[in-house]
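Reopening this one. Same input as before:
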Amino acid sequence: MENVKNKKDYYTYYLSLLNYEKFALEYAKYLKVPSLCRLKQISYFCYVDYGSKEVFDFKEPITRFDHSITTALLTQKFASSKVEVLAALFHDIATPCFSHVIDFLNEDYTEQESTEEYTEEILKQDRYLLECLKEDKVDVEDLIHFKQFSLVDIKRPKLCADRLDGVILPGISWSKNITKEDIYEIVSSLDVFQNEEGQKELGFTSLQVGQKVLEVSDSIDFLTHSSSDYFMMNLLVQIVRLALQKHILSYESLYFYTEEELIFLLQKTQDSEILSLLEQFFHCKKEEVRQIQNLAVKKKILQPLVLGKRLENLEKSEKSW
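Same output, byte for byte:
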């Protein structure tokens, strides 16, 4: 896996703003959980960041483990209990190899939640995790049902830790339109408010910051609906589908392999169809990217709270504030 640059400059800065060192001491045993550590080798960008350099050029390598850490750190800023922080840390534990590619395989383009079905199984099979939870008197059911915590997960267009991190990380590495100063301002302006439904919801104390987050979110939404993203995701769908049909892989194994292990296994099979698709994925030219039939891919609609008021979009906010 060679395509992505190795230096995590912006991500490291982001961690420092969120007091990662203190978190790492307090949650040290949880950072060793085997099922969580597997996510260190699962790309946050559905593995397309390891595809053809001519199609994509990501700035920094970001993994699902990285995302899990920063989601937990954002949650910790306003959490009322350790359980909420742990729910955030383990919210993506059921991420399969290639992440949302498997949702595409399952034809779950809109919600992109089909892969969460293994959350309970993975958590309950991790004996080390269960020991840690027992020691801290935390019920594993609270981690399984992480969506009960609105700071961790909440329906769009509202803002939660998972969603905000899903703006910052791609903004750093993919759209590249977020600076260190922006990250500082976002973290500094972050606050928690009570929304229209009486839920705790993340928001901002600065209109300018809210607008910047919307700007970055819109740019990421554009990229996730681009021909390049559809094309590369579709190549991975074809590869996985063939591997499943030819019994090279089992569906369940996608949730337990790392991506490096999976790619090695696929290359080792010497299956001509799969190898041809892998070659195309890793080395295709930009002009070879074909238009894929328009898929009903999830729109990343976001309307965060600014000082408790819903910011609908950039255009309306500029007129009403």
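So the earlier flakiness isn't reproducible anymore. For the record, The chain has a mean pLDDT of 92.
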